[in-house]
Amino acid sequence: MKLSNTVCFTGHRSQKLPWKFDEQDERCKAMKLALRAEIQKAVQRGYKTFLCGMALGFDMICAETVLEIKKHYNNIKIIGALPCRTQDIKWSLKDRQRYASLLERLDGIRCIYDEYIGTECMLERNRYMVNNSSLMIALFDGQSGGTMSTIDYARQQGLEVVIIKP
């Protein structure tokens, strides 16, 4: 049974986005505004819990946006759904610091594996988020890959899917 008040996110990693790691790019700023609007709509519709995979790129932006919106809606919460405890082991120091700061501010963490065991832990993380949500907000450019697979799975499970184009 789907939880009627839970949203999950899926989207591309920074390196696959048109602006890469440059979040000051106008396209990234426009995406952030669209994301904020979709999260606010979800909150207004009664969604209270947000599940975020906490990967580089869209996931971290989602977590930051929910945390910002949470300042105005103290009844919402954000849970990090980590594929493994070592998810950030190969990231740059800057990205690892951003990630650690976000983890400290989450309302909870659900970790699928202790160590990275291959792409299977990412797949299981994504399925966990979909299986515990009824709405998905996705940043999707139409290309095949992990984001498309997660969106397809969400639709198969009956989730409403909102697509934001990068």
Description:
This protein has 166 residues and is of the alpha/beta class. The chain contains five helices and six strands; from the N terminus they run βαβαβαβαβαβ. Helix 1 crosses helix 2 (58-70), helix 2 (58-70) packs parallel to helix 3 (93-105) and helix 4 (119-131) packs parallel to helix 5. It starts with 5 loop residues before the first strand and ends with a strand. It has a six-stranded parallel β-sheet with strand order 4-3-2-1-5-6, with helices on both faces. Helix 1 (26-44) links the parallel strand 1 and strand 2 (49-52).
Shape: globular
- The low-confidence runs, each spanning 5 or more residues with pLDDT under 50, are none
Which band does the percent of strand residues land in? Answer: 15-25%
Provide mean pLDDT, rounded: 95
The gyration radius over C-alpha positions equals: 15 Å
Structural class: alpha/beta
